[in-house]
Amino acid sequence: MIKLYWSPRSRSFSAIWLLEESGLAYERVLTDISTGAQKSPEFLKINPMGKVPALTDGDAQLAEAAAICAYVADRYPETKLAPATNDPKRARYLQWLFFSPSCIEPALIQLFTKLEVPTSTAAWGSAAQVFDVLDAELQKGPWILGDQFSAADIAIGAGLNFAVRVFKMVPPRPSFEAYIDRCVARPAFQRAEKIAAG
């Protein structure tokens, strides 16, 4: 049985959305970060970083939202949340799946802290570049891989929804609004939103 360790109103949202999209049976294990539950010795054995989400699946255990997306999509190919390893779309899928934690999240931190980082040393370039590149890609639509919804859309869609609509850190653009609307319209997104609200 898959167990998802999560906390309300946290980065757990993408993992909840993923599992709701998957149709797989899973158990949610509340790990309330507002009470410090993520620092318990039991939880630190699963994720020494003391962060949610984390997941166990039999003997497998892992953390980090994008890694959870990759693991579930690959371990359970019947979910159709990732192109097969021999599909040429796989390369773009992996690029965009990891674009969220490696580019969007650092860009948001840069915007939030107003930190000046030279684009030549920042792995993500600049916040402006990140959102310009994402804007250009989303204009192709409807999903990151065209007509195929994937776990990459969960990683990108969850991050973009928080950045644009929840925290209003990134100004809306037509491609962002249309993409977020498509994500929000998915029944699994709506179920995840209710769960994640606590």
Automatic annotation (TrEMBL):
Looking at the UniProt entry, the stretches that span the membrane are none
Domain GST N-terminal, residue spans: 1-80
Q: What are the GST C-terminal domain coordinates in residue numbering?
A: 86-198
* CDD domains in the cross-refs: GST_C_8 (cd03207), GST_N_GTT1_like (cd03046)
Pfam entry (one)? GST_C_2
PROSITE patterns the UniProt entry points to: GST_CTER (PS50405), GST_NTER (PS50404)
Stated name of the protein: Glutathione S-transferase family protein
The species is Bradyrhizobium quebecense
